[in-house]
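Could you help me review a protein record that somebody else here produced? This is what I was given.
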Amino acid sequence: MTFQFRMDQVLDYKHNQKEMVQKEFAEHQEKFEEIGMALYELLKKKETIQLQQSERIVGGEQVRTIQHYGFYIDTMEKEAHSLQHRLHIARDNMEDAKGRLLEKTIDVKKYEKLKEKQHERYREDLKQQEARYMDELVVIRHTNHEIR
């Protein structure tokens, strides 16, 4: 007689759910990092362009060229604002997935703990049963010995 956890199928289902949410969390985390890197690169590029614009102003460059730099910087600021908004949404999605992952992890732990407790009870029952068999064996031997 071997131990069989009554809720193995439920535990397997909970494990599968947890794995799916883990994958979802990893995807959201990757998307967040991707947008964050794009924003970082854009801001770095904007800073470089601003420095170039400042140098051109000091160097006496044509107004038209400086205006082009200004328009380009404005475009970059709009794009940075858009990326910041997308980053905020990606962060929220990642945090939601993290919360669901924590919830699924707790569910799985509950069922694993239940399985562990049931297995321990099973082992205790086996020990008690073995002790009863040993007691019966001792009684039978003692009875057989007295009959002789």
Summary: The radius of gyration is 35 Å. Residues 8-110 form one domain. The chain has a mean pLDDT of 92.
